[in-house]
Write a structure and sequence with these properties.
Blueprint lengths: L10 H8 L16 E2 L9 E3 L1 E4 L12 E3 L2 E3 L12 E8 L2 E3 L7 E13 L7 E13 L7 E8 L2 E3 L7 E16 L4 E17 L7 E2 L2 H15 L6
Parallel strand pairs: 1-3, 2-4, 3-5, 4-6, 5-6, 6-8, 7-8, 8-9, 9-10, 9-11, 10-12, 11-12, 12-13, 13-14
Organism: Streptomyces cellulosae
InterPro entries: 5peptide_repeat
Keywords: Repeat
């Protein structure tokens, strides 16, 4: 069974702190021996110490459920309803699906590895000590969410929506960010220097509280000039 201990004192954490920005604290998930689970989700269900391995959860309703010390591996989550769910001290490996609804959910001390998902609804959610590593997520909705000590690592995010969200101690390491929406977002100790490709569609004026590299500043210069109403002529 997967046992993970990923601390914020690693190479990425040190690099983040080197420039004065506070490094995110990474989750330290150590799963106990797990019992296999193959049933259906129930609203307000309580799932403790369980392994969901390649379980088809398509269209099921687990709204308000609590997942504690769980491992979800290779599960299908298309249109799965997990509104206001609590996912604690758990590891999700290879989740896949479109339209997974995690609105107003709480994720704390969670690792999400190699996700292949689209249209994930996390608006109004709370993410604390979360690592999202590898994979690709299209149209991630984090509007009005609260992210604290969150690390995105070696993943691709297409048109992620952080509108009105609060990001504190959030790191992007070796990521590709396409069409990011930061409209009305609040950033504090957000480290974007490790982003391999950074494209901001809206809200470039909300970058106060973020740290970028000199090369990224040059790439963003036309967008920044436009946001500030600066005309650049030869």
């Amino acid at each position: 069974m997967a046992r993970r201990a990923v601390g914020g004192t690693g190479v990425a954490g040190k690099a983040a702190g080197a420039g004065g920005v506070k490094a995110a604290r990474r989750p330290e998930v150590r799963l106990p021996p797990l019992e296999p689970y193959g049933g259906e989700l129930e609203p307000d269900g309580d799932y403790d110490g369980l392994e969901f391995r390649e379980v088809d959860l398509v269209g099921q309703d687990g709204g308000g459920a609590r997942f504690m010390d769980c491992a979800l591996t290779g599960c299908a989550l298309d249109e799965t309803r997990l509104t206001r769910a609590r996912v604690l001290d758990s590891v999700l490996t290879g989740p896949r699906g479109v339209g997974t609804d995690l609105a107003e959910a709480t994720l704390r001390d969670v690792e999400v590895i190699d996700a292949r998902m689209g249209g994930v609804q996390l608006h109004g959610a709370v993410l604390e000590r979360v690592l999202i590593r590898g994979g690709k997520i299209d149209y991630l909705n984090l509007r009005s969410a609260r992210l604290r000590d969150v690390v995105f690592e070696s993943c691709v995010l297409v048109e992620p929506d952080f509108g009105g969200a609060r990001l504190e101690r959030v790191e992007f390491v070796d990521c590709t960010l396409k069409g990011v929406d930061l409209n009305a977002a609040t950033l504090r100790d957000v480290d974007l220097r490790g982003v391999a490709s950074l494209e901001i569609a809206r809200g470039v004026d909300r970058l106060a509280g973020a740290v970028i590299s000199p090369a990224q500043l040059l790439d963003l210069a036309p967008v920044l000039a436009g946001a500030l109403g600066i005309r650049v002529e030869g």
